[in-house]
Amino acid sequence: MKRSAHVIAAALLALVACSAEGKTEANEGKSEADAKGTIEERASADPLPSPYTAKELKTALLTTAQTPSGFEVYRTSATEPSSPPASASEKVRPVECAVLRNPEAKSRAETVAATAQLYRPSDELDQHSMTLVGWAETDAKTRMAALRSALEKCGAIQFSNIDSNGTREARFQAEKAPDLGDETLRYSLNSPTFYQGFTVVRVRGVITYVKSDTVFGAGLTDQQRAELTPEHQERLIRAQVAKVERTLR
Hints:
Layout: H1 5-19, H2 39-43, H3 54-60, E1 72-79, E2 90-93, H4 98-101, E3 112-119, E4 127-134, H5 137-153, E5 156-161, E6 168-175, E7 183-190, E8 194-203, E9 206-215, H6 222-228, H7 234-248
Antiparallel strand pairs: 1-3, 2-5, 3-4, 4-9, 5-6, 6-7, 7-8, 8-9
Helix pairs in contact: 3-7
């Protein structure tokens, strides 16, 4: 991926600007974005406990020595099945599209999750993460169905941080998914200021999420944004799914 000095400088300025975004939005009461119950929670009225432990999922994450393409794993974390899901940090409209915006977020106390952040010195502007979420297999299938359903319905979205006065817009785009695991879904979220790419793979009751994202500088041309857009890391994704299959099947 070729990156000019102008493009990189503009992107770095955008990163600084995003981090300085204000936090002054007033609460809007019980709006549609505050509604509880995601698609898969409504579909699965009696969720089963996860058969996996946080330690097992964390063990199934790639280590730095196992990651291809010069990636370094610099931070990992895990949550037990009994840990409650974190409070939503964003308002997404339409609300049913929130499951696509943050698909790896733990949504129920019955689920267990492990996450790794990745760093690649050769390409510092691109950020990558891997998350494994463990479900009962029937609930994992329901979760994948919910993601597919939302992707069919969701195009343009608006979102903002809960405590921020800034609203941004972006658009989901379905992409051709690789043949991995028991079922795979791939899509991206695009805007003039950022890009996020998602690959979601189910192996029995474990769903693997690999995400890549970057931030664009203001005033970039379409060609410059294309130069900054990270590609799906196929070798990394395949290596992570293969380790899940070896470790947890």
